[in-house]
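Quick one:
INPUT:
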């Protein structure tokens, strides 16, 4: 934290430095050539279909409506596609996520500077960028990173209102229908926008919980009544409900989907993680700053419970959302992306205390950096010798790890006792950055589970006659893998959900080509004679060869039996 006479605001130079660091760090993944996963392909595929002539209000998947996510992220990705001129590149899709992640880092830096001063703001932004969960999603074009931008924006505005120049409320009207400062209107508009990035309700609750927790904990009507404002809530509702109302008008059955979708996450057994799931995962998502973050949380406990202030707000943001969402069956570590920011700010406090302890309390012999370098180097060597045959990449990778560990241990140990706090932090950050620079290319080269699938889908596209359309069986085993296949197929494909739909969409043609799994081949014989043209060497996640992907040519029967109505009612879900 800064001294009493230190500047509190970030300069343009500060913002440029934070942005440059974040850009370099986040570009490591797309430059390494890592292939998008099934999860990561969802938004890029719906965006590609939108960019290539699909609807701008209703996203589609293989030509079918797909309404689990609002279209706002797809609009942004389409803009990046337009600039790049390529709607089918993993790298371009990842850059779209990066262009969203950098503003989040800047918002976190702004929050830190508003609460504790310029230095804290800079460090908080850089720490947030290098937390492993944020780093992973910074180049991951899923809806979560887009929602994180809006949620962080809501809370950044709230911080300005409660801890910035607006905190004194001098001359501000408090009537239910009276006017408010434009920043209050911005708060409500952004709060409504949380409903437009990932899905209904979820984002609004994520942003609202820290605000409600802080205001209720303070028990101050003077603070609360600023937000008891008719026009603000109407503005939030107008922004939040625009897309859902448009969709309901076209597809009334979407209401049932939302009920089952969100009901399943609440108490219908979806994922069904234990109540302590987030308690276990919070330390993981904060890596490599877990210890400073937890130390910062502990160090601020007295201030948080003493009364209103920055510490209390950070506690509410860091703890209340995971605590409340622990009550639901559906839990996932990426939900914690929405509350990483406060941990980044708390990490600055923790780092300062750890550095002071190491400089002032450690005995002289413990400050010698060669000692931890030798200990960690010996431990790494022993482990590598034991498991060297199991390491993907072999001896070359083992040697690189064996060299990196003692060097990293030396730099970390030296940094923790360096008399200059700036040099100390730069040393730690250099190790973190070097770790990511080594890990991401290694992950792309040796841990890619989609290599066989990518080779198969490319070979399958070449095997189909140029004048024949390509169909893709909806993947009931891994629904999100449907998006992966659509996005990575060199040829456009249409999604079908059952054999009769294949026959209907191929009306007038003698045969059709379809990508499916081997276990679906027998069902296709209902509508025609099936020949397997090509089979994958291996399909990601397969439990046995029946789950392997195949390319089939279906020659249709002259007389096809009608489909059972009940079967079609269940299988042909048009909205997801």
């Amino acid at each position: 934290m800064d001294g009493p006479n230190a500047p509190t605001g970030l300069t343009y130079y500060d913002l440029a430095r934070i942005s440059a660091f974040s850009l370099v760090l986040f570009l490591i993944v797309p430059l390494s050539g890592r292939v998008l996963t099934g999860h990561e392909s969802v938004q890029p595929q719906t965006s590609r279909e939108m960019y290539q002539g699909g609807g701008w209000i209703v996203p589609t998947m293989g030509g079918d409506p797909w309404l689990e996510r609002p279209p706002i992220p797809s609009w942004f990705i389409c803009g990046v596609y337009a600039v790049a001129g390529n709607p089918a590149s993993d790298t371009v899709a990842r850059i779209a996520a990066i262009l969203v992640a950098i503003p989040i880092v800047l918002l976190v830096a702004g929050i830190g500077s508003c609460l504790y001063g310029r230095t804290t703001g800079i460090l908080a932004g850089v720490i947030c960028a290098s937390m492993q969960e944020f780093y992973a999603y910074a180049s991951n074009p899923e809806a979560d990173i887009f929602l994180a931008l809006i949620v962080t924006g809501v809370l950044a505005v709230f911080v300005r209102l409660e801890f910035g120049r607006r905190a004194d409320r001098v001359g501000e009207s408090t009537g239910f229908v009276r006017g408010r400062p434009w920043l209050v209107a911005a708060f409500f508009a952004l709060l409504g926008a949380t409903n437009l990035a990932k899905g209904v309700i979820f984002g609004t609750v994520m942003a609202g919980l820290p605000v409600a927790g802080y205001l209720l904990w303070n028990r101050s009507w003077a603070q609360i009544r600023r937000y008891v404002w008719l026009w603000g809530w109407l503005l939030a509702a107008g922004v939040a409900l625009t897309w859902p109302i448009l969709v309901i008008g076209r597809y009334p059955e979407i209401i049932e989907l939302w009920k089952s979708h969100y009901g399943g996450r609440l108490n219908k057994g979806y994922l069904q993680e234990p109540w302590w799931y987030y308690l276990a995962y919070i330390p993981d998502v904060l890596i490599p700053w877990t210890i400073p973050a937890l130390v910062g949380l502990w160090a601020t406990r007295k201030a948080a419970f003493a009364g209103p202030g920055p510490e209390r707000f950070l506690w509410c943001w860091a703890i209340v959302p995971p605590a409340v969402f622990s009550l639901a069956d559906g839990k996932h570590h990426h939900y914690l992306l929405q509350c990483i920011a406060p941990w980044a700010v708390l990490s600055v406090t923790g780092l300062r205390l750890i550095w002071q302890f190491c400089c002032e309390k450690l005995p002289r012999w413990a400050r010698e950096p060669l000692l931890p370098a030798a200990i960690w180097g010996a431990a790494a060597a022993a482990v590598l010798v034991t498991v060297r045959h199991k390491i993907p990449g072999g001896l070359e990778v083992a040697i690189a790890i064996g060299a990196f560990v003692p060097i990293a241990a030396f730099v970390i140990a030296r940094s923790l006792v360096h008399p200059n706090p700036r040099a100390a932090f730069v040393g730690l950050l250099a190790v973190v950055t070097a770790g990511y620079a080594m890990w991401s290319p290694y992950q792309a080269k040796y841990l890619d589970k989609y290599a066989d699938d990518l080779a198969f889908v490319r070979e399958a596209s070449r095997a189909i006659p140029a004048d024949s359309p390509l169909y893709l069986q909806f993947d009931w085993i891994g629904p999100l893998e449907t998006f992966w296949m659509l996005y990575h197929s060199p040829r456009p494909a249409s999604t079908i959900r059952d054999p009769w739909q294949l026959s209907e969409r191929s009306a007038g043609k003698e045969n059709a080509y379809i990508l499916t799994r081997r276990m679906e081949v027998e069902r296709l014989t209902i509508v025609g004679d099936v020949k397997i043209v090509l089979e994958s060497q291996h399909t990601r996640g397969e439990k046995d060869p029946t789950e392997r992907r195949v390319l089939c040519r279906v020659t249709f029967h002259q007389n096809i039996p009608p489909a059972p109505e009940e079967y079609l009612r269940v299988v042909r879900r048009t909205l997801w």
